[in-house]
Amino acid sequence: MRHRPGTFSIAVRDREADAFGAAVTTGTVAVGATCPYVSRNAAVLTQSYTRTEHGRDAVARADAGERVDDALSDLLAADEHAAYRQVHGVGTGSEFTFTGDECVDWCGSRVGDDYTVAGNMLAGPEVLEETAAAYEAGGGDVAERLVAALEAGEAAGGDDRGELSAALLVWAPEPTLYHNLRVDCSETPVADLRAVLEEARTARERIRAETDDAFDGEYPPELLDFGVKY
């Protein structure tokens, strides 16, 4: 197995679905445990030398009414090791990216309408360009577009020395099985994330059909998704 720290990720706001989402892949294990954070008002990722408090506190402050760019700027200003951080995200009224001077090349970010992408230790800027282009051009729901964006970034070179883990995290008014997915240690984490997404979609439809049969078409909505028979 390879163990490398390079990372690229995307944070988005889907206005139509009233959702926020994040997707990330990296050369170390279990990226979903520390890098992506989402809430009803923001999606934030903290990477390079990750500081989990930046993601956690930024989305909490966004939920309290603060702009995500103001929240992250304030958090970084108080961080004596900010030069080693890479942080980015999107809120209800702003986008934000920051790449510290001590992040390893190739590193950088892009800002689009209601999304941000960023990465470090990448094959080159084309990784983020293709990630952004795929998200902009993608169809389907926010989960589909996020995974497609990671696939495009990986195809453009991705982490300069390969990936080991990947994650998808979405906040939506109606959460579902495929809004919180992780591949923690794999030689092909992005491909595996795609497979998990498709399996979760299939499982959700199967659960819906089984619940519908059990309640003669009058199933209680609260039994679906996270409340159903695990």
Automatic annotation (TrEMBL):
Asked if the record carries the keyword rRNA-binding, the reply is no
Q: Does the keyword ATP-binding apply?
A: no
Q: Which domain of life is it from?
A: Archaea
Identify the keywords attached in UniProt to this record, alphabetized.
Plasmid
User: What PANTHER family has UniProt attached to this entry?
Assistant: BLL2871 PROTEIN (PTHR39328:SF1)
How is this protein named in the record?
DUF1028 domain-containing protein
